[in-house]
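Dig into what follows:
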Amino acid sequence: MELTQYELTQLDRKYRLNLINSISGIKPANLIATKSKDGKENVAIFSSVVHLGSNPAQLGFVLRPQGNEPRDTYANILETGVYTINHIPEVLHKNAHYTSAKLARGVSEFERMNIAPVYLKNFHAPFVKESPVKLAMKHLHSIPLPNECSFIIGEIVYIDLPEEAVNELGQIDLAYNNTVGIGGLNTYYKLEKIETYPYVRTHELPEKEEF
């Protein structure tokens, strides 16, 4: 298949949406959880979480256009300044997927999709109990994007994960945790570790014939 930019614009809308959403490859699958000041819990699936820096430890994610009234996730982040990011284990991928539904304001996806919340370290926002990697986040910035989406930047203030999943270099074995990735909008993949290579230094490159 070959497509020019013009041909891309002429595709059926749903076909183009699916094609472009899956063309970047497998993306991380995370549940972002929040709680309003009056105690209403919310959790929603996101596939746009990205690493921004390790010192300070920062992550970002993309929010769709919010319109005149922010949806629960963003409204709660703006109201409380905190949220959690939770890796999605294989056993929870179906429940997690359906959190993308646009439920009525104030209806908890935790309850509706049978996902158990858990509270750690007196953090205001809930974590996902079954998630093997749980991150408490402090909201730092919201940056408007040209397509009317927003890029949300947060700082990691607490981490909870299995010690056995982290090697002596601090690298996390995602396959050990049985977490999943997302292709496009609604296709889920298992993660399988292939190999770990050393940090690349020019003088340590393998010989050409070793590739």
